[in-house]
Amino acid sequence: MLPPAPAAQGGTILSPSHSDVPAPDSADLAPADIHSGCKIVTPLLARIGDKWSMLVVMVLSAGPRRFNELKRLIDGISQRMLTHTLRSLERDGLVSRTVFPTIPPRVDYELTALGHSLRVPVKALGAWVFENRDEIARSRLAFDDRED
Amino acid sequence: MLPPAPAAQGGTILSPSHSDVPAPDSADLAPADIHSGCKIVTPLLARIGDKWSMLVVMVLSAGPRRFNELKRLIDGISQRMLTHTLRSLERDGLVSRTVFPTIPPRVDYELTALGHSLRVPVKALGAWVFENRDEIARSRLAFDDRED
DNA sequence: CGGTATCCGAATGGATACTG
DNA sequence: CAGTATCCATTCGGATACCG
């Protein structure tokens, strides 16, 4: 049981315009600040949290791949969703698409520098899930038992 | 342009059963390992990436709140989605629900220790988005221009 | 090979009305 | 106050067929 935080103190959720500032652990913020912060973060969370994006990024982190190569490596993905996922990642600048105008055509997909840098915070989140997977699983079991 | 990684070397995406091991930067993994790793991480990514979960967690990080208090603080959320979001977070052990059997009834929601600990990696991801928001925005503009 | 187009069922999420 | 129940529009995502 934590005591309620005493008071807000202003500042945005990630205020400094220059990086490398730890941000004085923003436990308390004005609701408007929380909203503006999450409005930026949530859409990307939703993108990499969708059914296939993380899988594609992880497979591509080993190096560039062709379209059907990805399709084979990512078990169960449909052609439609692979196309959609790659287009979204490309639009956000996380993946680059290179067309070789040969016959038959060849298209290479590769993580950009931005795409590679994303793996760092995502892996931190992955580590958190891994460390707490048992506690989460136990909580779910207990919850599902309670509601008969 | 990063060179493709030379060779795979085995190990799961987050292999150690005990924590605190940095994991020798897994750039290359067998597809099966990537799949097993993402199968664990992606569902939680999808949970906190949904429309309201992060907002609820952020508001609750300042301390416990009552149901209608949350509804007022989180602009635009419907009663239905607030209930659903809180139930999901509770099921995963990120939020606790305390009922005071008074009249009128009172229900307090509060982040658990697990919920608080989640904020650390999520804020790291938020920092990444914040630092790269301009590059992402530029990439989207360029992409949308290209396709007329 | 690397897609696009179409159809369709399932899941997401808002609006509204009702309840203990 | 703190929900539940219902209806409905939109989106997600798989299956299939076709195309340059």
TrEMBL record, chains A, B:
Domain HTH hxlR-type, residue spans: 38-137
Among the Pfam families in the record, one is HxlR
Q: Keyword DNA-binding, does the record have it?
A: yes
Keywords from UniProt, A to Z, are: DNA-binding, Transcription, Transcription regulation
Question: Which intervals of the chain are annotated as region Disordered?
Answer: 1-28
Which GO-annotated molecular functions does the record name?
DNA binding
The name this protein goes by in its record:
Transcriptional regulator
